[in-house]
Amino acid sequence: MSDIPRRAVVRTARLATLPLGYAGRATLGVGRRLGGRPAEVVATELQQRTAEQVFRVLGELKGGAMKLGQMLSVFEAALPDEVAGPYRAALTKLQEAAPPLPAATIHKVLAAELGPDWRGLFASFDDEPAAAASIGQVHRAVWSDGRPVAVKVQYPGAGPALLSDLTQLGRAARLFGVLAPGLDVKPLIEELRARVAEELDYRLEASWQRAFAEAYQGDPDIAIPWPLAASDHVLVAEWLDGVPLADIIADGDQDQRDRAGLLLCRFLYSCPARAGLLHADPHPGNFRLLADGRLGVLDFGAVQRLPDGLPEVMGRLTRLALDVRRTATATAAAAAGSKGTGTKDSGVNGATALADEDAAAQVVEGLRREGFIRPGVTVDAEELLEHLGPLLDALVEEEFTFSRQWLREQALRLADWRSPAAQVSRQLNLPPSYLLIHRVTMSGIGLLCQLGATTSLRTEMERWQPGFAQPGTAAARHAARANRPGRPLPTLAVAPGGDATRTPADPVLFGPPPSRRARAPRAPRPPRQRGGEHPMDKPEP
């Protein structure tokens, strides 16, 4: 394919084949079941064929279709083994490769965006794309000062195509339930529509990227490529060589998986504290494991502003729920150990039960105040904590092994509408202010399960999530210092909303990155992988 399909009628027709194709396969499936084939076998075949058609069409269309496919990619770990293989292969193609635009088209975009003498900015430029993404493709080049750079060029017509795709995908949202039972993609599609303007503005993206790069300048664990120039539809940044996370998921050894998982947790929980911003598009195509062990992070088109850091109330409520879960786990273990001994419940156990009931009630009321429980809806505290239990189990121990099997079990709990977990889930609400935080959290867990990583999510949360660590501890002091309410966001070259009067051929030049310098006293250093004292745990002078 030599060009991105832009005409609405062409794109709409291709997306329309998705529900029509599914309807035909479903009808055929009914016939096969009537013919005596097991329902499970027919359902699996339906999943496989639906996945093949969905991601073939999404990959060809790019735009919003491919963007949604990338967002869904982190949930493939929840699929059965017989479906996950072809599903994973199709998603990898979405993340790292798509039909490229011809060189002549790219040259026209560069001339329009950077000026007719755009070649003077580069010592060399490779016409063959190195990678393709949802709304643009990346070319490798050498900047005029000799630095290797990545040049991201937005597809012509990507804006209208993006909106058209998302409208059509909203009408076919039910189809995705066949691929991942229990997954509701409508909120994801609505979120993408709401953020279209920011996703399409490469100058704004470069400003976000610069803010992240400044926050992690000289960091031993996280690498952010410095942006060098940007226009509305072209972004030039330093090139990062490394192993794509998708390759580690497919073939990485356990050390690579654990290292990538640790640094992924560290980055996602630390960036609101260190940059006042949340990277809101965590999928395998946006991360690299570098040769020096750092995690390289790419693509800053989707960012949430969090000037106060992560919400303290969510850390506090999670800690309360975790305390109840720990007690329940310990009580169950003690009961199993004393079974048959005739030991009776003590007053201490009774007091503990009352304390747990009080903590559970606080969790329910806290979630209600934050808007997670709709007014007038009654939620049983015990059932709510049971609903959250498996996710809390990942925080009970200092280290937890995330796996595809574990994620499948959670998906099945929520997919069965008769289960208590599914019934509680239907009573909950996701407030708009938490939409991106929730998606990033769930996507991060999906990535950890794809990696099969053993890591300490709890330690990273204690050090970066306000309110989560026990009050008075070193970790709690670290999180409080890291997340300072009311601080200003980093200065942006382009403010959100942009300047409508700027000309396309007037790119923003960011200049070289600042030299390595001593970190400001407030900026926390990355915590160590294992337990023990951390430099930031010491009292401030």
Automatic annotation (TrEMBL):
Presence of the UniProt keyword Repressor in the record: no
Domain of life, source organism: Bacteria
GO molecular function (one): ATP binding
Basic and acidic residues: compositionally biased ranges: 530-541
Basic residues: compositionally biased ranges: 516-528
Region (Disordered) residue spans: 471-541
Pfam families linked: ABC1
SUPFAM superfamilies (UniProt xref): Protein kinase-like (PK-like)
Keywords (A to Z) from UniProt: ATP-binding, Nucleotide-binding, Transferase
Limits of the ABC1 atypical kinase-like domain: 93-308
Xref: PANTHER family: COENZYME Q8, PTHR43851
Family stated for the protein in its record: Belongs to the protein kinase superfamily. ADCK protein kinase family.
Descriptive protein name: ABC transporter
Organism whose genome encodes this protein: Pseudofrankia asymbiotica
